[in-house]
């Protein structure tokens, strides 16, 4: 049986920590930032954990992570 492929879009968007948590970056931080206030942009920094309802879908896209 051939190896399963990782979805290339998923490997660019998600990182898996050594403990198994899946992290993602925040949305709404790419463009049209002038009308967003500083507090909003600051809160969108950094990585957050993928929601529990979406973890199974992300894991199926990254079989070896």
Task: Tell me briefly what this model is.
The protein has 65 residues and is α+β, with helices and mostly antiparallel strands. The chain is 29% helix and 15% strand.
Notes on the protein architecture:
- The chain has a three-stranded antiparallel sheet.
- It has helices at 8-13, 38-43, 55-61, and strands at 14-16, 22-25, 47-49.
- The protein starts with 7 loop residues before the first helix and ends with a helix.
- It has one domain (8-26, 34-61).
- It is an alpha+beta fold and 65 residues long.
- The radius of gyration is 15 Å and the shape is elongated.
- Biggest sheet overview: 3 strands, antiparallel
Helix vs. strand class: alpha+beta
Number of domains: 1
- What's the average pLDDT? 97
What is the CA-atom radius of gyration, in angstroms? 15 Å
Shape: elongated
List the helices and strands and how they pair.
Layout: H1 8-13, E1 14-16, E2 22-25, H2 38-43, E3 47-49, H3 55-61
Antiparallel strand pairs: 1-2, 2-3
